[in-house]
Sequence to fold (278 residues):
Amino acid sequence: MDIIHSVADLRERLQREPNNVFVPTMGNLHDGHIQLINIAKPRAACTVVSIFVNRLQFGPREDFDRYPRTFEADCKRLSEASVNVVFAPDEKEIYPEPQTYLVEPSDLQHILEGAARPGHFRGVATVVLKLFSLVMPHSAIFGKKDYQQYIVLRDMVRQFALPIEIIPAETVRAPDGLALSTRNAYLSLEERREAPLLYQVLKKAHGEIMNGARDFQRIELHSMSELADHGWKPDYVAVRRQVDLQPPRQGDRNLVVLAAARLGRTRLIDNVEVNLSH
Fold:
């Protein structure tokens, strides 16, 4: 496994690897990341994983400075997963000058996560486009836990006609249902016991829709109330179309229930897809 820190060295290394697949990460790797790598490896001769905590996607009061950085442990896991190239640049390598050219996503960036985290998807799209231009993969893997991020990046690749296939990966969960996330480490022991409620609320909403309920606003409000009754501070629970995260229209069959809520100081997100039979 080659660990590379500079853009010049990355480009030199990948000249020998025209067939590569890419998994971008911010490090502090868990089993969800390893699943992305396992999906990636059969797809190309060279698997590239990046580790870069991207300041552009963090708001001024978010956790950029305290975001877990565990580089040595990450490299050990990546070596065990038989990754070929790890690209771990510092901030000056990715942004050698102020990044004044930014990718401006569609209005999708202003709803749900975008409403709660203004500018977040602009930062995500900008750094991912830059990483794509450096790695030049034929495919890239993104987890569905960050569902809106996956949709934003899928649409960016399509609209810019990039020769990259965006491949979604299912959410990896702990035995009690909690979606694996780096930010789970912020939870206290008591909060960790409470945290699976978010998935339980989503599964309950999923069940109601599968059983014929179509008053989506009622489902959303009831779900948020249940979280609030247990001490959570929900940002949203929303039933949307999978294809574009817009409110469902009559006859839509492929939906997703998305949620974001704060438990103590930790903000958790999750989602459950709803695929209605024809």
Remarks:
- The chain has two domains: 2-169, 182-271.
